[in-house]
Write a structure and sequence with these properties.
Elements (H helix, E strand, L loop, with lengths): L21 H7 L6 H13 L15 H14 L2 H20 L5 H8 L22 H12 L4 H15 L4 H6 L5 E2 L4 E5 L5 E5 L2 H14 L8 E3 L5 E5 L2 H15 L7 H13 L4 H8 L4 H5 L6 H8 L9 E2 L2 E2 L2
Antiparallel strand pairs: 1-2, 2-3, 4-5, 6-7
Helix pairs in contact: 1-4, 2-4, 3-4, 4-5, 6-7, 6-10, 7-9, 7-11, 11-12
């Protein structure tokens, strides 16, 4: 609990109505997939003041409070997590300004709070996540193939889209059957926010999707559905969390350690770059607004960098006692 200049007085325990509460307005603007994480982020910030989402005086935050929050988050969380929490806070501050609870000058001062900066290390051990080898991906797909229930082909198809198209879990969970044009071989992807993209789907990924649809059928609705323990396909849409769990299950069955579903996306980016696909094209395929973001997904091995450096010739000349050694 902060004290002294950091003390934050609550709004007399007053609970604002949802359409006037900055947190409620912000959370209402989020997609279903983003909502739980951002709600949790704001709860963690409120807990620093021994408050909750409703009683926290978000509109009373000032410079000293923001610095207190930033310092405590840096102590408690990783740089990436702390910055995600600060992003949620900035959005609430913006809603406070738009709702008329603070002046523009106050808002601008608070919104410019600097993100935390972690250690920059692009060595293989210093990067989050990793790229999988084609052998590891094959082993995971083989584990799916051992399951002769509909869950086996469904899981293989989800993994195929994760690697073959670089799709995020939430993008797979949102996919609807009408998003797939089987004649043209195109899949419309419902991306983050309102951003979407259409991707060609070919080779093994297309084969997997066509096989799954033969089992699923062409009834309208979610592309991927749940499968019960009896192997029966259920009508409910599979969620992002379920995709995480099924991937972990198949990776464990395949004996592939220390990998998360997002590693398939990192592998997608790394392997395309390794095949000399232009980074701007890879960025477009991955649904990144900025190629700089795409570059952060590059998990190619150090040997790839070594081979790239070998393409340059350095005309080093060794001298001995004033003479050039040939």
């Amino acid at each position: 609990m902060p004290n002294g200049d950091q003390e934050l007085v609550l709004l007399d325990q007053k609970r604002l109505p949802a359409d006037k509460h900055p947190v409620a307005v912000y959370l209402a603007s989020l997609s279903v997939g983003s909502l739980p994480a951002q709600r949790s982020a704001l709860r963690k910030i409120a807990e620093l003041f021994e408050a909750d989402l409703s009683s926290m005086n978000w509109t009373g935050l000032r410079y000293q409070h923001i610095q207190f929050i930033r310092a405590r988050l840096a102590e408690k969380y990783s740089t990436a997590t702390a910055n995600r929490l600060l992003t949620a806070l900035r959005r609430v501050l913006r809603e406070s300004w738009l709702l008329g609870y603070m002046g523009e000058d106050d808002y601008r001062k608070l919104a410019t709070v600097e993100p935390l900066r972690g250690k920059q290390d692009d060595s293989e051990s210093g990067l989050a996540g990793r790229a999988l080898t084609i052998g590891e991906i094959t082993a995971i797909m083989s584990a799916c193939a051992q399951d002769e229930t509909p869950a086996g082909i469904r899981d293989a198809t989800i993994i195929a889209l994760g690697y073959g198209l670089g799709l995020r879990r939430v993008e797979i969970a949102r996919a609807q059957i009408e998003d797939y044009d089987a004649v043209k071989g195109l899949l419309r992807v419902r991306g983050k926010g309102n951003k979407g993209r259409t991707l060609p789907i070919d080779n093994g990924a297309r084969d997997a999707l066509d096989t799954w649809l033969q089992i699923r059928g062409d009834e309208p609705g979610a592309l991927f559905l749940g499968v019960n323990k009896g192997g029966q396909i259920q009508g409910r849409q599979i969620g992002s969390r379920a995709i995480h769990e099924l991937y972990q299950k198949r990776a464990e069955q395949a004996g592939v350690d220390a990998t998360g579903f997002h590693d398939l996306r990192r592998s997608f980016v790394s392997d395309l770059l390794d095949k000399s696909v232009d980074v701007a094209m890879v960025s477009k395929l991955a649904g990144h607004s900025n190629p700089i973001t795409t570059a952060r997904y590059d998990r190619r091995k150090m040997e790839t960098r070594r081979e790239a450096m070998k393409t340059l010739h350095v005309p080093f000349i060794r001298l001995k006692k004033g003479k050039v050694i040939e």
